[in-house]
C-alpha cells in the first residue's frame, strides 16, 4: 500500500471518528433535553395531585350533586389509576392542551398566548438595562480592584441580592409615582388607549413604534420603565458580580502581561482583549439572568398590576384554577429549558476549546 493511500485511510478514519463523536454529543444532548422536560411534566403533574384542591369541585362548586361530580370526574379522567392519568396528562401537554381555565373559561393556552408577551417585554427590557449597566460596572470594579469604586459596585450588587423585590417595588411606587409623578399608574397601558390601540405582536413598545403611534409609545414607556428598571437592578446585581469575577480571571492571564509588554494601551487591553474573552461565559450569565426574570417576575407583576404570566398564575392560584397554574408553570419551565439549551449552544460556538473536546 502506497503512502498516499495510507494517508487517505487515516484521514477517513479521523473524519469518521469526529462524526461519531458529534453524533454522540447530539445524542447525549437530546437525552438531557427529553429527560429534563419529562421531569418538569412529572413534577407539575404530581404537584397538581398533592395539592388539596379538588379540580372537579373547583369547576362545579361545593354544592354540586354527587352524580354530577362523579360524571365530571369520569370526563376529566380523574377516576383512572394514577399512571394512566399521567400518560394522559403527558399526551395532552405535548400537544399544548392544558385544559380550560376555571377563572376565564378559555383554553389555558389561549390565555397564556395573551399574557406571555407582556412578561417577555418586561423581562427583555429589564435584561437590557441590567446588561448595559452591569457589564461596564463589573469591568470597572475589576480594573479598580480594592478601590472605593470596587467597593461601591459590590455594595450595589449586595443590595440587589439582599433586598426583597416587592419592598423595592412598593418604595419606588411611593417615590416615583405618588410623590414625583414621573411614571404612570400601575398597569400596562392607560385606559384611554386600551380600546383604541390594536397590538400586533403583543409587545406594546414595538407595536406602537411600528404603527407610528408615538402617544401610545410614550404612555406604554411610562408604565413599563419602573418595573423594568427594578428587574434590571436585580439583573445588574448578578451580571456585574459575574463580570467582575470573569474580568479578574482574564486580567491575571499571561496574554495580558504580553499585551502590556508590547505597549498596547490599557483601554485596548481591557475592552478589546480581556472583555472579549470574558464575554464567552458572560453570554451564559446574561441568558440565565433573562430566564430568571421570565420566571421570577411574579412579585413585580403583582405589585405593578402588570398583566403578564406571573400575575396570571398568581390570580389562578388564588382562585384554585390548577389547570392555569400548572399550564403556566410548564410554559415558563419550557422557556427556561430552551434558554439554557441556547446558552449552552452559544457557549460551545463561541469558545473554541469546547468545540475541540
From TrEMBL:
Q: Which Gene3D superfamilies match?
A: MetI-like
Q: Which residues form the ABC transmembrane type-1 domain?
A: 116-347
A Gene Ontology cellular component where this protein is annotated is: plasma membrane
Keyword Cell membrane included in the entry's annotation: yes
Q: Where in the cell is it found?
A: Cell membrane
The UniProt entry lists membrane topology as:
Multi-pass membrane protein
Give the UniProt keywords, A-Z. Cell membrane, Membrane, Transmembrane, Transmembrane helix, Transport
The UniProt entry, under PANTHER family, shows: D,D-DIPEPTIDE TRANSPORT SYSTEM PERMEASE PROTEIN DDPB-RELATED (PTHR43163:SF8), DIPEPTIDE TRANSPORT SYSTEM PERMEASE PROTEIN DPPB-RELATED (PTHR43163)
Task: Give the protein name, as stated in the record.
Answer: ABC transporter permease
Supply the source organism for this entry: Ferranicluibacter rubi
